[in-house]
Amino acid sequence: MRERASGRLVAVKYVRRGASIDEDVESEILNHMRLSGHPHIIQFYEAFLTPTHLGIAMEAAFGGCLFDFVSDSIRLRERHARLMFQQLIAALAWCHSQGIHHRDVKLENLLLSRPASEGSVLKLCDFGFSRDAVAQAQPHTMVGTPAYVAPEVLACQQFDCALADVWACGVALYTMVQGCYPFQDPRDPDDPQLIIKHILHGSFDFPPDVPLSPECKDLIQRILVRDVTQRITLQQIQQHPWFLQDLPSDCQACDPTQQATLAAAVQACRLSQTPADVKALLEVARQRPGTGSSGMLGSEFSSDEHLLQLPGGGSPDPIREESEESEQIEDGRGDGEAAMAAAMEAGRIDAEQGRAAVAAAAMEVAAMEGVAHGGGGGGGSL
């Protein structure tokens, strides 16, 4: 789809009108609007209606997601992984400074600005699980992708969303440099109960055959700590020696003056559509498909333009939150690459599997810790 005024290509997420337009969709759009304009966050452009769907127009990233890049590469060189991680932390720091917690940080939600290369810019996307720290109550329910979810979230306890986001960043960094998830059991990597058990234990290790600097290992070990009081914070990550190496200027921690300058620049990037406009649009979108105005508040994108994108001239299928579950491993890869991709695919667990695995694994962990009189404590390398 192209923007009418500039001719630039944009990405569009479609959600079917009616009952699908719930509070989560509203929160996703409003939170995304607040964060747009940062160089490492996918830019929100506009929400609009078709006769059957709500459309969310946003910046297009032509390099695909970081998961695919890591899978194709088997793993990233440490220097390249650091650059990706620095950009992720910069994006997440901006989210947190604006009172927004992402709650679904994972390689699939990290997009590359252009086809994979070390010059690609990383962009954080998908705010479907995001939470406003001020407007919404303290969470105590499990959301996100289980392989990345912090142990306190899996335990369905009240938790600090900022520290849960930090945990997910640690999983992402480990996966980039190792080519596998930290909590997969090598005996059975596709067993969700074993993955959940290792997360609840905080138990992981570094494969001895993969070279990794002591500084990088130290940072990962300080992030993947089960005890939240001992887990490193986002601000402490930004001061870690490994993180500070070759740090790009747009990834540096901001002082109050720089923060105000960035906020002003972000504000200047935003479109004229206001939160009130979006809320009014969503009220219409909640009506059954086929009612209301198809072009309401969609002035930047004509109906002809987005209808040209529909397969066979029909309505688009809604883009689901867990669409990555349908991805397949490509044929023709080398043995090592295919094995790495298969291992990463095996680590993906859907929400239903996750809940069942948590219940079983939590009982096992509780029994083991009871025998050990509460031993366990923090995470780190075994």
Task: Give the secondary structure arrangement, pairings included.
Layout: E1 10-16, H1 23-35, E2 44-49, E3 53-59, H2 66-73, H3 78-97, E4 100-101, E5 110-112, E6 122-124, E7 131-132, H4 151-154, H5 161-178, H6 192-201, H7 214-223, H8 234-237, H9 241-244, H10 256-269, H11 275-285, H12 303-307, H13 335-346, H14 351-371
Antiparallel strand pairs: 1-3, 2-3, 4-7, 5-6
Helix pairs in contact: 1-11, 3-5, 5-7, 6-14
Active site: 104
Protein name: Serine threonine-kinase
Keywords: ATP-binding, Kinase, Nucleotide-binding, Serine/threonine-protein kinase, Transferase
Provide structural commentary:
The chain is mostly helical and 382 residues long. The protein folds into two domains: 10-60 and 268-318, Phosphorylase Kinase, domain 1; 66-253 and 338-371, Transferase(Phosphotransferase) domain 1 (Transferase(Phosphotransferase), domain 1, Orthogonal Bundle), CATH 1.10.510.10. It has 14 helices and seven strands. It has helices spanning 23-35, 66-73, 78-97, 151-154, 161-178, 192-201, 214-223, 234-237, 241-244, 256-269, 275-285, 303-307, 335-346, 351-371, and strands at 10-16, 44-49, 53-59, 100-101, 110-112, 122-124, 131-132. The strands form three sheets. It has a three-stranded antiparallel beta sheet with strand order 1-3-2, with helices on one face. It has a two-stranded antiparallel sheet with strand order 4-7. It has a two-stranded antiparallel ribbon with strand order 5-6. A hairpin with a 3-residue loop joins strand 2 and strand 3 (53-59). Helix 6 crosses helix 14. GO terms for molecular function: ATP binding; protein serine/threonine kinase activity. Residues 305-336 are annotated as: Disordered. This is Serine threonine-kinase.
